Structures are given as C-alpha cells and as structure tokens.
Amino acid sequence: MERVGVGEVEVNHSAARTQASMPPPDRRAEIAVDRYRQIVFPNRLREMRHRHARLALLQFAALIPQISYIRLSKIERGEVYPRADEIVRIAGALGIAPRALLIDTDAPTFDMDAWFAPFAEGAASDDEHEARFALLLAAAIRARRSADATLTAATLDARYGIPPVILSRLENALKGLSRWNPQTVTALCALFDTPDVAALRAHVVALHEQGALDPFLAAIPGAPQRRARTRQRIAALEAELADVRPAALAALPDRPDAPAAPRQIPAYGAPLGAGRIAKTRCGSVEAPALAGPRAFAVRTGAATLGGGLPGQATVIVDPDRHPQPGGLALLSETDEAGIESYRLLSVAVDRSGLLQGYSLNPAHEVALDPLPPGDVAAVVAAYFA
Asked: Which end of the chain has fewer CB atoms surrounding its CB within 10 Å, N or C?
C-alpha cells in the first residue's frame, strides 16, 4: 500500500512539473469578435439595383451625380449611415419608394450572414487573430490615454501624427493593425515607446495577459451595441423619410428603362513593379457620366493602396480635374531611363494645408501641389471587377 502511495505521489509530482512547464493559456481566445463591426446600415440597395436598374454600381452611380461613387458603394455595403436626402435620390433613380430600401434588422427573417455574403469576397477584413489584436490595441490606446491626461486628441495629432478621425477608428477597433498605413503604425510604435511592430504587438499582448486592459476592453462597443445603434439609426431615418413630401420625389429623375449606351474611353496599364503602372494601351471601358471629355481608364495591376483598391480594379481618370483631399490621384512619372509610367496615390492634406499623395505597397509619399498640372489628375470612379 505504501508503494502505491509513493507511486501516486510521484505521479502527482510529475503532473505538477508538467503543468508548471506549460505556457499560460492565451487569454486572447476569450475575446468575442464582432465580424460585422464595420456594418452600421444593412439595406436593400444592392437587391433593388439588380432588380430595377439592372446596372453595375458604377453605371448606377452616374445616375446620381450628387452622391460620389465611393460613398454610394459604402452605403450599399452598409459601412456608412446615409442621410435621408441620399436615400430619396437613390430611390428616385430606381423608381421605388425610399422606405423600400430599408431593412428591419429585428425581423425574424433577417439573416445578417446572408445579407453580408455578396460583399464578403471583396471586403477587406481581418482574420479572427488580427481582429482580436485590433480590440487589444484599442483597449491599450484607451488605457494609455487614461493614464496620461495630457494625451488629448489634439496632442496625439500634434505629437504623434494621429488625426482625430484615425484615433476614433483605432479606439473602436475598426480594422487590424496590418491594414493601417506605415505612418499610422510608426506613430503607434512611438506612442507606446516600442522600436517596431513586433515589439508593439508583444507589449500590447503582455498588458492583456496582466489584466491591465480588461476594464478598457469592456468599454469598446461590441455586437449588441452595434445592433442597437443600427436599430436606432434606421428608426431615425424612417422618421425622416415619413416627412418627405411627394413633390420632392417627383423632382428626382425617373428610373431609366433603357439606359443610353455609355461612352467608351481608352484603358491603359501593365504592372512595372515598385508601384508603377506602364502606359500601355489595353482596350476600352465604359465611362461614367461624370467623366470629362479627356477621361481615360487605368488598370491598377497591384493593390498599391491596400485593400480599399484591389489589384484587379480599373480607375477612371479625368485630367481636367485636380485631386481633392480624401480622393485618389494618378501621377505621371518619368524615370532616369526616360520611361514614362503612372502611379496611383491616396490624397490627404498635411498640417500646412498642402496636398500629399501616398501609396502603401510600396510606401511612397509625394507633395502634389508643386507638381505641374499635367502630371497629376483626379480619379473620379473605379470598377472593382
């Protein structure tokens, strides 16, 4: 009996040693991820566009010049909350009542998975690991600011180059760290005094393992808050639409039963590497109504601007329009060998009010204001197929 007891003790000691040598469980697995965290306005726009207009979104956008293609795309994907006048214009172009575009997200028949499915393939999204880290990073930023009252939104912008709009998206975990541009990632490393991305990730995970982020994680809106916000916003929009007078609808353009054949414009593009696009003719594409007489198309060839503009996209360029902040620009370049090429850039304004062009892959920055007018043009639309 004694030997059995000793043996049992030895087995228990062995189990204890094995348990002590095992790494602690990863607490990140306990974090609930809302895969629809960017969706605030599920709607029937895509369904109604296919049923009534039978047009691609880019073509349909040409019928509503008051709403940019990019904004219309975000409304259709449910990523932004539209104004009542925008819903009225969209419905007018479709020839339907504005309220027909709205969805009762509380209805038993509403299935978020089914609604989201058409957008899932082309949507820029994070895997669960990256989505969880986005939540940890959001909580870490909130914790950092809570511990230092001087880190106001204005201070973060001035000291680290994190504008308030970016700060809000970071603190609400709207996308993973790998999808932020290099400037934002560098600013985050500086904020947490870490030398690189790997150290930043390790630091944030360590804070979570210590329990330091728990109260801040709890404050980040999740699926229940998103659903409640969506419900409130759709109810408010329904109330606004109830006040829309019939005369306002009558003033909107009718739905075209037989849209006119669109104008064809030349298309160029072949990837050269390093973010450059060759000025090689590659067929023609349909021009949206908003494109000017000298407009042309460029095939991107690579996702130089990240997930927002995939490599298979075709952009419509109007050389008679100058780029605007928040939009896209096409830059014409000539290298040392005299080879001409294009480069796509996102357009922003620096603290001095000057236009800056950026690309992500590869990281590239260009001051746009000093360039000759003929070297830079506005992108006015894009095809994503």
From this structure: N
Contact 206, 133 (CB under 8 A): no
**What ranges in 22-111 are assigned the alpha helix state H?**
45-48, 57-61, 69-76, 84-94
**Which tokens belong to 348?**
């922003």
pLDDT above 60 for 17: no
Secondary structure E strands in 209-360: 264-268, 271-273, 276-278, 281-286, 296-299, 314-318, 328-334, 340-349, 355-359
Classified as helix, coil or strand, 379 is strand
User: What are the phi and psi torsion angles at 251 (to 5°)?
Assistant: -80, -10
- Specify the pTM: 0.50
CA separation for the pair 174, 41 (Å, rounded)? 15
Q: Where are the beta strands (DSSP E) in 275-363?
A: 276-278, 281-286, 296-299, 314-318, 328-334, 340-349, 355-359
| pLDDT score, position 151 | 92
Q: How far apart are CA 118 and CA 121, in angstroms?
A: 7
Please report, in angstroms and rounded to a whole number, the separation of the first and last CA atoms in the chain. 77
CB of 44 within 8 A of CB of 102?
A: yes
**Average pLDDT for the chain:** 81
**How confident is the model over 332-375, as pLDDT tens digits?**
988 777 788 999 998 888 777 778 888 888 888 888 888 887 88
Picking from 298, 315, 289, 309, the residue whose alpha carbon sits closest to that of residue 60 is: 289
Name the residue among 255, 241, 251, 244 with its Cα closest to residue 94: 255
**13-17, 51-55, 66-70, 262-266: which has the minimum mean pLDDT?**
13-17
The strand pairing partners of 365, in sequence order, are: 358
In tens, the pLDDT along 283-298 reads: 888 887 777 888 899 9
Average pLDDT of 305-329? Answer: 84
Q: Is 277 helix (H, G, I), strand (E, B) or coil?
A: strand
